Amino acid sequence: MEDKKVVYITGGSKGIGKGIAQYLLNKGYRVAISSRNLEEIKRAASNLKGDASDILAIRSDVRDPADEKNAVKSIMEKWNRLDVLVANAGVGLFAPIEDISTEQWKNVIDTNLTGVFNSVKASLDAIKKAKGYIITIASLAGTNFFEKGTAYNASKFAVVGFTQALMLDLRHHDVKVTTIMPGSVSSHFDGRIPSAEDAWKLQPEDIGEIVYDLLKMNPRALPSKIEIRPSRPPVKK
After folding, report:
1. Which range marks the domain in which residue 147 is found?
2. How many domains, the chain?
3. Taking the complete model, does pTM exceed 0.90, yes or no?
4. pLDDT tens digits for range 84-103
5. CA neighbours within 13 Å on the CB side: how many for 39?
């Protein structure tokens, strides 16, 4: 169908981003997914279940505004519309302040915060035209600080603040904006490998379901910030 809505998901090669992509494909959306690694994003796209004509793999580093502009250009050239941005790309760094280098700090902030800004700026004209939706993937680390979290906490606290202010900027353009703040998710984040022991954690498709529910909500309703956590984490002994 030519009127299928189009979603751009950054950080879509694995984990939450890929889970969102698959969930929305199953619901009849077209999805563009991006990653800074071309081979990874091509492989992820080939592993998604759905019509190949509804899937677009893009190499883009969200830290580079030119890359994000080119990503949106590719989407518009293929489908001539962009309805939803899911700014999901992120990196983790958990270490005492003494051990964090300037380069590591810059990578976390440039990816997790400035990358969101770059994705939003590149997508904004198309999203406003579509009266669409912008969703950022933050974290419970955006409201709960913890030891060894200076870089990561700073980036996610900032994403939450950025998104809430963005919501106020765009609500009268009929553009909805929401930040989703997941707790523990079974994914490849921070180099982890999902296993059976992660069954208690949120699964990537759980975040996809939230995104879908947001997109189907009545236009008059806007959940601007959503916290989600595993319902039954292991009991600490």
Report:
1. 6-190+199-228
2. 1
3. yes
4. 999 999 999 999 999 999 99
5. 0
